[in-house]
């Protein structure tokens, strides 16, 4: 099946590489021409969990070429649109320009799976793409880009859950097709009709680990090692879980344990937020802790810790 992967970051390249390796016809849409040229010419260099690296051929075009009308092969790829588009860009890149590019890429038969951290993007995408079947996804797979263009390392296995954003806007055949394709490419994928809950559970983990690792400049494993950091983690966890529960999250009895388990399982990893700060990139703070603060305001409860870490992280980049 034709699959468009939008975004050439670590998660995009990981999904593109594994799907192309399993025989799917994958096109990677990147933000720069330079990256698209490298991917088209040399393919994705995918380092698997067992350390073995392979070069995997994919098609690749830049997103700007979709709007420039100069696309040539890019235009042809977009015209015969894929059944599935997988959106892997960071939240801060979902702007008017990208929405316009996605309108070009999607067609009547397209479905869009969104794999972003944080909240806020789904409403924006639903408004911009009224004719597209929209799916929310949550992935716990770990990936790290080793160079600027094509080399990605799969750093951790984890489930990928996805489900329709609106119950009345889904296609059972299309979603089952994607599920089978993902499974045969090696993903631990599953369909869920509790996506809001899954998104909130992941948001809770990200809202505790990401800002504090960025502020303290520690790996995920080092974060809970100092008593004062652990205390702050716990307070941020309590505040965030109360806000998310007030907005409908089923509170998991073992929520705190889960945060600690993620720190242990990804102990040597640098969180995506710290990695953005170190590289001088924009972080997803506005859609993680900023998103939690926004929910709290809407519900009418205070969110002093989420407000504070949002302000602090914004000053790091
Ligand atoms: O954003 C991240 O880095 C990851 O989602 C997580 C779970 C915090 C682990 O590093």
Q: What is bound: which ligands?
A: pantoate
| Level-1 CATH class name of the largest domain | Alpha Beta
Rounded to the nearest angstrom, the radius of gyration is 19 Å
Helix content: 40-55%
* Outline: globular
CATH hierarchy: architecture of the largest domain: 3-Layer(aba) Sandwich
Distance linking N and C termini: 40 Å
Residue windows where pLDDT falls under 50 for at least 5 positions: none
Order of helices and strands: EHEHEEEHHEHEHEEEEHEHHHHHH
Q: Tell me the domain tally.
A: 2
Structure description:
By secondary structure, this protein is α/β, with parallel strands linked by helices. The protein has two domains: 192 residues, NAD(P)-binding Rossmann-like Domain (Rossmann fold, 3-Layer(aba) Sandwich), CATH 3.40.50; 120 residues, N-(1-d-carboxylethyl)-l-norvaline Dehydrogenase, domain 2 (Orthogonal Bundle). Helix content is 47%, strand content 18%. The chain has 13 helices and twelve strands. Helix 8 packs across helix 11, helix 8 packs across helix 13 and helix 12 packs antiparallel against helix 13. It is globular and about 55 Å long. The relative contact order is 0.11. The site of pantoate has 11 residues, from helix 8.
